[in-house]
């Protein structure tokens, strides 16, 4: 399969993992409070958690989609609606809320637990499993592909947000500046929904 056939999945994973949410806000705050090195266990825990969610979604859904193709349409509709709702919430939000009383960064196990309860993560991975099943020859291959792609992009995006936390704490001074950033990311997330319908 040619690399360009994977580009919609790569674009979807890149945009959906980099957009603000619970884990990106925590990565930003962790970077601002503790720096990059001390935030690594948190970032790795979230990335592994998202990869595990993608594997689970792909392994369970691939066979189910073959048996009930109409389920794919229902999942795309539900996933698109949820991601659009998230985009609206992101676009209307302000600066991240940082708790100055935090004594130490979130641990690897804590990050894994947070991610496994993250509805945005489940929406992303379930939507990707339904939308990109055609990129793999079976459930095992799809699970490996989605786990790898989402794990890598989650780690990269969290690293970006962690570094951004260090920089943004110094650069963005007003709520208006945060709102403009959130609006741009919300538009990017809303735009990524189109890749689910190809």
Description:
- With 198 residues, the protein is mainly alpha-helical.
- It has one domain (16-92, 105-197).
- It has helices spanning 7-18, 22-67, 70-92, 108-116, 119-131, 139-171, 175-192.
- The protein starts with 6 loop residues before the first helix and ends in a 6-residue tail after the last helix.
- The model has no long low-confidence stretch (mean pLDDT 81).
Name its key features.
198 residues, mainly alpha, 7 helices, 78% helix, 0% strand
First and last CA, distance:
17 Å
Rg value: 17 Å
Unreliable segments (pLDDT under 50, ≥5 consecutive)?
none
**How many DSSP H or I helices?**
7
Largest sheet: none
**Shape designation:** globular
Number of domains: 1
Order of helices and strands: HHHHHHH
Which percent band covers the strand fraction? under 5%
Helix content: over 70%
- The total strand number stands at 0
Helix/strand structural class: mainly alpha
Give the overall average pLDDT.
81
Layout of helices and strands:
Blueprint: H1 7-18, H2 22-67, H3 70-92, H4 108-116, H5 119-131, H6 139-171, H7 175-192
Kindly summarize this structure in a few lines.
With 198 residues, the chain is mostly helical. It has helices at 7-18, 22-67, 70-92, 108-116, 119-131, 139-171, 175-192. Helix 2 (22-67) crosses helix 4 and helix 2 (22-67) packs parallel to helix 5 (119-131).
């Amino acid at each position: 399969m040619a690399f360009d056939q994977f580009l919609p999945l790569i674009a979807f994973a890149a945009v959906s993992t980099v957009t603000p949410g619970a884990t990106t806000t925590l990565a930003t705050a962790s970077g601002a409070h503790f720096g990059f090195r001390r935030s690594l266990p948190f970032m790795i825990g979230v990335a592994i958690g998202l990869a595990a969610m993608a594997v689970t979604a792909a392994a369970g859904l691939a066979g189910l989609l073959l048996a009930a193709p109409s389920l794919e349409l229902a999942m795309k509709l539900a996933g698109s609606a949820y991601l659009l709702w998230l985009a609206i919430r992101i676009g209307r939000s302000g600066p991240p809320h940082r708790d100055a009383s935090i004594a130490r960064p979130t641990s690897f196990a804590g990050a894994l637990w947070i991610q496994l309860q993250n509805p945005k993560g489940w929406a992303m991975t379930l939507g990707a499993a339904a939308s990109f099943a055609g990129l793999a020859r079976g459930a095992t291959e799809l699970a490996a592909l989605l786990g790898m792609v989402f794990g890598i992009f989650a780690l990269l995006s969290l690293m970006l947000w962690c570094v951004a936390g260090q920089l943004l704490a110094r650069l963005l001074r007003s709520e208006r500046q945060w709102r403009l950033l959130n609006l741009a990311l919300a538009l990017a997330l809303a735009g990524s929904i189109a890749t689910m319908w190809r």
